[in-house]
Amino acid sequence: MAAFSLLPSAHIAPKPTLHFIKASTSDLPKTSPSPPSTKPQLPSLKPHHNIREEARLHNAATVTTNHPRFSAKYVPFTSITDPSSSDESHSLDEIVYRSQSGSLLDVQHDMSALKHFDGAYWRNLFDSRVGKTTWPFGSGVWSKKEWVLPEIDDDDIISAFEGNSNLFWAERYGKDFLGMNDLWVKHCGISHTGSFKDLGMTVLVSQVNRLRKMNKPVVGVGCASTGDTSAALSAYCAAAGIPSLVFLPANRISMAQLVQPIANGAFVLSIDTDFDGCMQLIREVTAELPIYLANSLNSLRLEGQKTAAIEILQQFDWEVPDWVIVPGGNLGNIYAFYKGFSMCKELGLVDKIPRLVCAQAANANPLYLYFKSGWKDFQPVKAKTTFASAIQIGDPVSIDRAVYALKNSNGIVEEATEEELMDAMAQADSTGMFTCPHTGVALTALNKLRRSGVIGPTDRTVVVSTAHGLKFTQSKIDYHSKNIKDMACRLANPPVQVTADFGSVMDVLKKYLLSKSH
């Protein structure tokens, strides 16, 4: 492979009664309003208006009386687990990442306002927005805006219409390898930058865009990354015209991941350390410079990521799966899924939540070890190299969030060795998928839980695929070339070298077809 050098470097909006952003606080009965109407409610707009301008005009014309005002704020995460522990709170317009006591923050929504409307209302509202181009509701994230950032102006939102990703029925993989008939893969990697990180980054960069318009001291946005976070941050910042800064561990991410922030104009620092070292440095830098911290220490991203859970329910016509398996590294995503599911239950869209499984690479498995100890002794680990590079994290920021999610969902933690995750990835690919190594970790967890009988043959199970396989082609090349040290690569499928004559080709084809006939 060539060396790679780093140089310095006229749509009609929905019925007005559905717009809840600026509203009074009058009490409403808990009834289910009619689904949004698709009939025109406003005069025809001039054809030169783009979808953002149409939303602006619609909002100006919308009557917003007789609806509760939806809002959200930062609270210490400890007050989520123990409501009596603190009454501290912060506006989402403050630049703050931790509570006064140093704990993580969480975005807390005004659930009493959201409960003015019943579950049927929210289901109808969310369903009415799917597949539309109305700004910003064409996004799988912003179609749930009232549950994400309810007070942000539509005009401040930076979106690539992310989300709405494929929920794939893994029919052959489930049947042939696991004896399952209801196995699904949520392809979050089929997204703007190729990973689930887009779901959170649209929320964070939109809020930064709002803060900059409010003249808050934010010059740029920065992150430490093992690849996918930097790709999402750089893309959304580029769309917003906001400078992005990326700290990457040198020589530890794929070329496909490295080139994304570079292509999107980010200022990239390749640092001789691991992810945990990069994370420590970016936290120190953002404490001194007007750079907004974009890592999952920042709870805004989790508000976007939780919409993938809501989307799964939506894609199942609001029926709850039995299991959802999520790869885990920094551990924000497992909590985000829990939060999405639990909000749906609390607000009456569903009557239960699925059991969650967090899957870790054995080379970076502090949560797994903590789980196996009976939640008695958490110790960070020094993460070893893993093909699942995005979860190569030994000291996860969101450990407390993950434990809370797992305990409250009767959850499980599993691990995958390097050989197990690569074999699982290759096996899935052989049935028509093209998965990333992190999905291989989740599939390994599924295999182990299926073999042990914990997951049954008819259990509706969703494996969350967090990134696109095209970001990890080198690992696939190495596997199918049997070019990985100390790994059998037992499912490798290398090309067969044949001389250029008809007889030789026929001999090879006959042998191949004969092997497939048995």
What report would you give on this structure?
The longest helix is centred in the middle third of the chain and has 17 residues, at 197-213. This protein has helices at residues 51-61, 77-81, 111-114, 119-129, 171-178, 197-213, 228-240, 255-263, 275-288, 300-305, 307-315, 332-346, 366-372, 399-407, 418-429, 437-451, 473-480, 502-516; strands spanning 72-76, 90-91, 105-109, 167-169, 183-187, 220-224, 244-249, 267-271, 291-293, 323-327, 355-361, 412-416, 461-465. With 518 residues, it is α/β, with parallel strands linked by helices. The chain has a domain at 68-194 and 300-517: 3-Layer(aba) Sandwich (Rossmann fold). Helix 6 (197-213) packs parallel to helix 7 (228-240). The protein is built from 18 helices and 13 strands. The radius of gyration is 24 Å and the shape is globular. A six-stranded mixed beta sheet has the order 4-5-13-10-11-12, with helices on both faces. Strands 8-7-6-9 form a four-stranded parallel beta sheet, sandwiched between helices. It starts with 50 loop residues before the first helix and ends with a helix. Strand 7, helix 8 and strand 8 form a beta-alpha-beta unit.
